[in-house]
Amino acid sequence: MFDFTKMFAANLPAASGKWSGLAKYNFTGGNNDAPQIPLDDLVTAASNVLRREGRNLAVYNLGTGPQGYVPLRDFIAGKLKRDAGMSCDRDNILVVSGSLQALDLVNALLTDKGDVVIVEQETYQGTLTRLAQRGVRAIGVPLDNDGMRMDALASTLADLRSANVKPKFIYTIPTVQNPTATILTQQRRLEMLRLADEYGVPIVEDDCYADLIWDRQRPPALYASSKSDNVIHIGSFSKSIAPALRVGYIVANWTVLSRLLALKNDGGTGALEQMILAEYCINHFADHVEQLTRGLKVKLDCLTAALSESFGTSAEFEASKGGIFLWVKLPDGVDAMKLSQSASKAGVAINPGPEWSTNASFSKSRLRLCFAHPAPDDIRRGVRTLAEVCRNEFGIPQVIANVAG
Fold this sequence. Notes:
Layout: E1 25-26, H1 39-53, H2 70-84, E2 93-96, H3 98-110, E3 116-120, H4 125-133, E4 137-141, E5 143-144, E6 147-148, H5 150-162, E7 170-172, H6 186-199, E8 203-206, H7 222-225, E9 231-236, E10 248-251, H8 254-263, H9 271-311, E11 316-317, E12 325-329, H10 336-345, E13 348-349, E14 351-352, E15 366-370, H11 376-394
Parallel strand pairs: 1-13, 3-4, 7-8, 8-9
Antiparallel strand pairs: 2-10, 5-6, 9-10, 11-12, 12-15, 14-15
């Protein structure tokens, strides 16, 4: 057999293991609520748009150019104006294969090995991994219950300037932050924009969870409030419709988009997905998201009740303001990485905090639990199993005998 390993390029990521299926109790990943996939309406949308425009699939990008299906871009522009206060049109939008491709394109455009990027101290694991793979140093800024702390951001920017280091950009998830689910206040958004202008640093705004807010009220996007056009906005349909569709988008000025288009040399994002999404979303998006968020809130309530029942005061958390995950703090004696490994053997999959943080010691005993995909009964059973594993490994939570007086 030919030994391909001798031909592998340098600096490859570690090899992937073979797929063994989802865990029995899966609290990981961006999976969503299967019963709330709008299947019947998607089938109708697919049938309608294919009958009307299906023969355009014979041409790359449906013959309408590489930025994406025009009706979908028009829908996105209208949605962003209505929900996020953004003024943009189809020419400001590039449809991509999920937000991960958007991040890859932005990183390729703006970063080189040895660069520095500012992120929230706890942030999306995929962002941290991709920056590390490019040899880019991620510097984390602490958060509180209102999102990234602006005093800490100001201090970080000042320290970097003193060291003659100019960060390439500030990466932020301001609306339903991942993993903390915080929402950056409007006052802090304006201060972030002011600091970005003062230090000449652009902002990359990842808004993938912004549709999933319980009260349906969200501050304007950073892009909407920028006076210097220094924000690149990233969005996705993965959380609002279905993650397997792999459709996201980038909003930026033409100077940026023209270079991103040159980097996006994949022949175009899947046109069929774009066609179906546009046909569906134009008629149903707002009603669907309202129903989806109601169902997700029920599951969050189920998760928090299960944690309180099985962990008692050993599990600390602030109930999420939206999204699909809960950021949980266990006592300091718990090692989340070890807990994750032991829990996996018991059929429970969790995201250990250190993998989602630039400060592993701070997040050592923290977990990200995604509640969207498991059914309520599985949420309860999974949390009970996790508590049993945690007790066996770390003595937490303790069993308190109920002694009658």
